[in-house]
Queue: 4 jobs
Job 1
Amino acid sequence: MIDHLPRYERIWLLLGIGSIIVFLVVLGTLGIFVGLNPPGHMRTIAPEEVAATAPFDEPGVTQLGPNEFRVTMVARLFAFDPGEITIPRGSTVHFEVTSPDVVHGLFIPNTNVNIMVVPGHISEYTYTFEDEGNYAMLCHEYCGVGHHVMMGKLVVQ
């Protein structure tokens, strides 16, 4: 079958096929026998019911304890709700974000906050804001013609 190929091409072809087989065996072993899989605790929500389902019917900031907050957000064409968030310095923030319409993103530059917001899913991320300042909240997934105006503000005092 590959006898018509030059010797070195056959060697590289066999090395490539061998690498793919090894990769698939390792991946299968990790997934099936070791149990390494993507997190399965993903929460879902019906996109058409976002506005009527708690806690997304009243998005905002909830204090959970000293310097610990939950931010419930809805990303929709072409805005974040709430659009401005204020928290004290050193606060740990548990983001809880969903979308009723299209795929959005929540990106806060100079932090590790980078969340993909998919309709029907509740995306969660936790981050501690150590430095004071004004942080932009940007949509980093193209969501339509008004994508460039989709931004919010997070103020750390």
Job 2
Amino acid sequence: MQMIKKILCVTDLSLISRNAEIAALRLTDLFKAEMTVLSCGEYYAHVPNNYFDENIIQPQPDFPHTEEYLKFVEQKKLETIDHFNNISKIFNLKLPENIIYEIKLENEVTAAIDVIEEKNYSYDLIVVVKQNNNFWEKLLFGSPAIEICEESHISTLLMPESEEWASWMPKGIIVGSSLTEESKLAEIFASEFALKTNCEISILHIIDTVNLHFDMNVSHIFPIDYVPSQVQTQTIDEIKVQRINELNKIKDKLKEDFNLKNIHNHMDLGRVGDEILKYIKKYQQNNLLVIGASGGSALKRFFLGSKTIAIEEACSIPLLIAQKISS
């Protein structure tokens, strides 16, 4: 059963958003999906009116749904339609027949969550650009792309904004697997992409030395909550053998379920984020990383941070964060 049937593309129609627009169009055609364009932006550039006889003025946010507001929204919809017609011609892309245009004047995070809630969380994939903000911008304002992902609980493809990714389609896929339930959806998404594009999958598992250290020392932090961990009774070599067996089972199942042939495993030891980024740098034929959303206990996230955010900030290739709404 195909996972990707409805795609939401978040854009402000700027050059920064272009890679998300192009990728969404290509994936919509690849998966024969329904595409919704969310054209949004708290600070929409006001261009001279080309669609109505009278001039359309930027409405004040304190007065939604006035006549002025509705005219401005209508103009933005016409601009968005023209914009996507031009994108499809410039990059020789097929414009889907069932494309839907949603217009919001809020910032991209608020607008995306509003549309997702209005559509009852029916989207299967969100496509948005990962902006290259500097350290202080990320510290003060966070990352809109990762915020959309975390707030929506919907699988999200983060496209780099540099021009080199304008022609992107998956050629080699890395799926970061933690060998848990959280990774199963990432493995399925990666397999669907590989099946459609006929590219190689690398199932990458990192034995996380940080978490091993945490598990072995948690009793010194909170002795009253301590539950003996299996990790403390196993050697690293025993853990490696166990994980290799689990990886082989995953590989065999994906081969059988998706009829995939070009799939292999890789395992290493270290800090998860660092080792994933090293693997990307070493094997540059891969141009898509698929991971599950960060899980684990609130206690571990408090002390160790979110692997998802760390990888999102440093990842140089498109990143798909697979997740689903908890029942």
Job 3
Amino acid sequence: MNNNTLSNGIRFIILVLVQVLICNHIQFLGYINPYIYVLFILLYPLKNENRALFLFLAFFMGFCVDTFSDSGGIHAAASLCIAYIRPLVLRFSFGSAYEYQTLKISNTNLGQRFMYLFIMILTHHIILFSLEIFSFTHILLTLKKALLSGAFTLLLCFLFIPLFRTKNQ
């Protein structure tokens, strides 16, 4: 087991525990809830990425959160969707640095990092709340929850990213 695998395993466990023990109990104004576990998907290493393993880990991350939250698979579906579109968003946000596998998220400028995190978190939250509410008549509630929870999650992600920085990232 190499150092990268160990650090990803520790990151996985810490983020699941933080989500289910702390973040699931934060409810601002009744509907603003942070989903910090998406950081695992967002910060998963790019080099030598085994796509099938990454999709499985994203699904398993969501499944673990669903199991502890009793949410019926919505986190697993949203996590799998953002893991699937991640290469497209990386290419859009970082351009040639992603194409040539020279991308280190910690070395990117704030605008590119913000764009990447914003697109991924907003996509995750729209899918999550669409599946949770599951009604076109409540589309405004879905968007309101997605935008407000997304903004809170984005803020927490910017605060948590330095904690998960490794030497080779």
Job 4
Amino acid sequence: MTGRIVVIGVGNPLRGDDGVGPAVVEALRGRVPDDIALAVSDGEPGRMLELWRGADIAVVVEALLLHPARPGELHTLTAAEVAGRARGTASTHALGLGECLALAEALDLLPRKVIVHAVEVADVELGTGLSEPVRSALPELIERTATSVRRAGEENHQRRTSGGAPLP
């Protein structure tokens, strides 16, 4: 593995709360080390696969539609948990993150570790700006994402200094 870490904010700022992923990425600029790749994606699987190609760790920030919804509620999930929740949740995109992760696994393009930070959303209709519940959750979502990036960097450093041996 390369040790490369990528943060992908999934969403569209022109669709209300769906802009939360890009908002987190923008907030991280200048706050994470320069070697961390920061990217925004509309969630299309081919583009997602390209963004995390060669990455050891991918941190994905996504809007999450649940029924019933609890707008502003934060979730931190692994790739396996996203796949397990795919039936009970819906992405704001045509193909959800669960399908994208399954495709990446089938094509052997899945990073060693995927961390998903998601926030339940209220409004993904056309229009700019986040709803009040999502806007209120944004500082904590940014902090959780930054913490994941910091831990991923520490984990990669430990892997390199231990000769690539798996960590306990």
